[in-house]
Amino acid sequence: MTELYYDAAPNATRVVPPLHGPRQYPTNKPAQVYLFGTCVVDLFFPEAGMDAIHLLEREGIAVNYPQGQSCCGQPAYTSGYTEQARQVAKAQLALFEQDWPVVVPSGSCAGMFREHYPALFEADPALLRQAQALAARTYELAEFLLHVCKVELSDTGAPVKVALHTSCSARREMNTHLHGRALLAQLGNVERVDHSHESECCGFGGTFSVRLPDIAGAMVQDKTRQLIETGAHQVISADCGCLLNINGALEKQQAALRGQHLASFLWQRTGGAR
Amino acid sequence: MNTQARIPAVELPSDFRSRAHQALGDAQLRGNFRKAMDSLMAKRASAFADADEREQLRALGNAIRARALSKLPQLLEQLETNLTRQGVQVHWAETVEQANAIVLNIAQAHQAKRVVKGKSMVSEEMEMNDFLAARGLECLEADMGEFIVQLDHEKPSHIIVPAIHKNARQVAALFQQRLAVEYTEDVDQLIQIGRRVLRQKFFEADIGVSGVNFAVAETGTLLLVENEGNGRMVTSVPKVHIAVTGIEKVVENLRDVVPLLSLLTRSALGIPITTYVNMISSPRKPHEQDGPEEVHLVLLDNGRSQAFADGELRQTLNCIRCGACMNHCPVYTRVGGHTYGEVYPGPIGKIITPHLVGLAKVPDHPSASSLCGACGEVCPVKIPIPALLRRLREENVKAPDTPHPVMRGQGSKYSRKERLLWNAWARLNSSPALYRAFLRLATRLRGLTPGNVGPWSQNHSAPKPAPRSLHERAREHFATRGNRP
């Protein structure tokens, strides 16, 4: 019966090794960057994208926003429509011709560039090289501000208590779950309060929240309850997917609490005009 | 005691979504799981206090399993050769039917009437209890958790802690009703009651059945870990011992076992080692005082070679069955093990079950995840569970008649309409002019956003597009000042 197993394909794994581990950051601030705004920010949270631009410009960096950009392809990718995701990813891949860093105000879309684009283009050597190059210069906004810009923020706002929700992709794909904390810690009048089960998913998961609304609903109800229980005045997150989920649920529950993107919060707290 | 009487158990709905819905509405069940999973997560965390050590050990565990799988056929043959030489009879089963037939043959050869079983998930795959009961053999679970769920005519809800969905009060009522003992909620007393019943059964049993944690090819050793001693009893007291296991459980040598064992017990229960580590390599030898006269090993495939045949899906077989993925899973924690409706619940269940029973039987399994990655983060052998879930989604939405299927039941979620929608979505998002036109339309017509947007509205108010998109605002921003900082 063992001969059954001899027919098996060789152990050619399709999985690209993850890029986890301490990341090496450029020692000098670049003169130019690209901003990939993400489709959720584009349509629902444009102010977060604008505030990301403002924060980068204040650091003396010229921001380039390719008008050809749309979505990173993640919704189709995580739904199993790999071909459709590849088609969209290929269009994004062509946008970043110069060797400038690509800054993304979302852990999840940055994770798509960094972790999944190389896997998507594995079969095409030319596109794979391009995808790997993009992956290597993709940064989540918080890590870019902290480690590349080495920002020093000074708080101009009134005392406030905030709860920070970190997206699962920021935490587990981008390893940037501590960066938001570090940035908030620079703001003297901001008290960060931690919620129970902080590392647990808010239940968004892209199409998951509409495919299995009962389970996703239980998750977001727990998450919003835990956030409310902290007594925070405001929720901060660096991912607009989570914010769409959390804010939508809070609004439905008629709760007063709302979430804001980290970029907007940082910009407003440090004297930035709207 | 009356374990055979059919008492109408609570009927679970027949599909995953309805079972999930029911479980989510059961406050007692949700409370039991949340409390238990929080405790198991805390235990694991304290057992891996040194993150560097943990990551090195996980990398090693992954390498050991990958190496074993890379030479699985040779290792299985080596295992068979060594065990056979040592007097263990090795049987191969491609299906659960074959595996059950092998067990029944052995039982009949010994005119066996009573079987006592240590904890074994493979025997759950075989539904061995029901199979033997239907043929007049009593098959009693000897693991305390399994004993409890068997008494209540249930299935395990967790692979390590099978009765975790019950609290002490529920067990107390069950024991009072089925074992005719005095009601007590004292956990120690409950365990003593269970042990008293089981103790007698070990000595009456004709056959002991066990699972296997690691089958060591080089030495022909079956390694079995447990905390209650039932594993030691079932493998040494009855005259015949039958071990059942999946073909993927083989490792190359004893050295490989050391790190895997540490990963297993720390990930599962946060303990440095189990109370019992049984190593079985032969029946009782002439000079030995105890042990079974016959030892059999049944090696079951049951769809595992389908996973093995694909380089990516093969990683599913790395699993050492610690259950850490379910302990950390936000979905499992909320819906509990029975919602999955299959032997293996939780994240590992979602990636292994489609190979065992075909995707068509569990079409919702791959989708029932937010891909949060908690499972992959804690897996002691680094199975990329989220990536495999995504891959199963891909197989699930393929056209059912796609040539060269890699899985049974491919395309179980195929919908031509949904595919066309994604095609349109891809077109929209890969042509900038079309996408910008869409943005203009969505932002201009934001007042017309419907209040009810399908399933999203169950938990959220409808999202409203911003008055102007980032595309527009950025264009304006850079048009007036260029992109100088």
Describe the protein.
The complex is a heterodimer of chains A (274) and B (485). Helix content of chain A is 47%, strand content 11%. Chain A has 274 residues and is an alpha/beta fold. In chain A, the strands form 2 sheets. Chain A has a 4-stranded parallel sheet with strand order 2-1-3-4, sandwiched between helices. Chain A has 2 domains: 116 residues; 117 residues, Rossmann fold. Among the domains of chain B are: 268 residues, NagB/RpiA/CoA transferase-like (Rossmann fold), CATH 3.40.50.10420; 62 residues, no CATH class. In chain B, strands 1-10-7-4-2-3 form a 6-stranded parallel sheet, sandwiched between helices. Chain B has a 4-stranded mixed sheet with strand order 8-5-6-9. Chain B is built from 21 helices and 10 strands. Chain A: InterPro entries: Cys_rich_dom. Chain A: This is (Fe-S)-binding protein. Chain A: It comes from Pseudomonas typographi.
The gist of it:
The complex is a heterodimer of chains A (274) and B (485). Chain A is of the alpha/beta class.
Task: Provide key terms for this protein.
heterodimer, A: 274 residues, alpha/beta, Rossmann fold, 2 domains, 14 helices, 8 strands, 11% strand, disordered N terminus, B: 6-stranded parallel β-sheet, 4-stranded mixed β-sheet, iron (chain B), Iron-sulfur cluster-binding protein (chain B), iron-sulfur (chain B), 4Fe4S_Fe-S-bd (chain B)
